[in-house]
Write a structure and sequence with these properties.
300 residues; mainly alpha; 80% helix; 0% strand
Length: 300
């Protein structure tokens, strides 16, 4: 059990580290995501193929998975764009808006009732982001892009849950990375026309950090999370992933000294978001205990 918890927290830490790498790599956001998808897709096809985890699926399912992969790739593009136009801390705070968008979009997509408490907590999170947006005016562009990133991030897990009912996770991931890569390759020339770059090829250190991003923060993080899920409940895994922005912001403070660049209003906004996060954790834990007491299977 201790090993599973350690694996899970390493996976969450690696997820939080992606923001650090996004600032460290000098390529623009479109090129970062394109190389990340390229390396990750190749690695997954080789690794999962060797593990015999890849399954044949209908063409219609492949198209659906590739479309979701494109949504995921656009989330990454906007996430790294938010970092480039602001900083890691602001981008990760904006990522917290995923709860608000999930509370609205999941009921719409799955045709179920909106959870009033989830929506309220999401609104509180948006209030925290607004405090930062209102007073840290030089981060406005980054905040807007970051909120768009959170909107996209809320969409693809909803569709993934539906896909995983008929497709195993390795096959889904391999096709998603491939789909995102192919579609991004088509639109990237138009994107670079409006956001030109000096070089299309990564330098030595950029290549090293891209390999870290793809192999550690994508492939390895997934493997660790998968291993943890064998011993821990999905409830525990989902709850622990709420720490991702926290880990990322702490790393940004340590590595880039971003705490020296942020105004007091960032901390006011972050405190509001942290309150919503803590309240959500308390409510979910209470619900989990209630279900266990009544002999019902825990939350997923």
């Amino acid at each position: 059990m201790k090993k599973a918890f350690l694996q899970l927290h390493i996976a969450v830490f690696l997820a939080g580290f992606t923001g650090i790498l996004g600032r460290l790599i000098t390529l623009n956001e479109g090129m970062i995501v394109w190389y990340r998808l390229l390396i990750t897709a190749i690695t997954m096809w080789i690794l999962f193929g060797a593990m015999k985890k890849l399954k044949k699926i209908p063409f219609r399912e492949i198209i659906k998975i590739c479309a979701v992969g494109f949504i995921a790739s656009m989330h990454w593009v906007t996430f790294y764009g938010a970092i480039k136009y602001s900083n890691v801390s602001v981008a990760l705070v904006c990522f917290s808006a995923i709860g608000f968008f999930t509370a609205i979009l999941e009921p719409l997509v799955l045709r179920k009732r909106i959870n009033g408490m989830d929506l309220l907590l999401g609104v509180i999170t948006i209030l925290g982001i607004y405090v930062i947006f209102r007073f840290d005016t030089h981060y406005k562009t980054g905040i807007i892009i970051g909120v768009i990133s959170a909107l996209l991030a809320a969409l693809f897990p909803i569709y993934n849950r539906q896909i995983l009912k008929t497709v195993n996770v390795e096959t889904m991931l391999a096709w998603q990375q491939t789909g995102g890569l192919v579609i991004l390759s088509v639109i990237l020339p138009f994107y670079l026309h409006y956001f030109p770059v000096e070089s299309f090829l990564p330098g030595k250190w950029d290549l090293i950090w891209l390999l870290v991003l793809a192999w550690l923060c994508s492939v390895l993080a997934f493997q660790l999370q998968g291993n943890a899920l064998k011993r821990l409940s999905a409830f525990t895994v989902n709850l622990t992933y709420n720490l991702e922005p926290v880990y990322g912001i702490i790393l940004a403070f340590i590595i880039y000294k971003e705490n020296q660049l942020l105004s007091i209003y960032f901390y006011y906004g972050f405190a509001i978001i942290a309150f919503a996060l803590i309240l959500h954790i308390v409510l979910v834990v209470k619900e989990e205990r209630k279900l266990k007491k009544n002999g019902v299977v825990g939350l997923s």
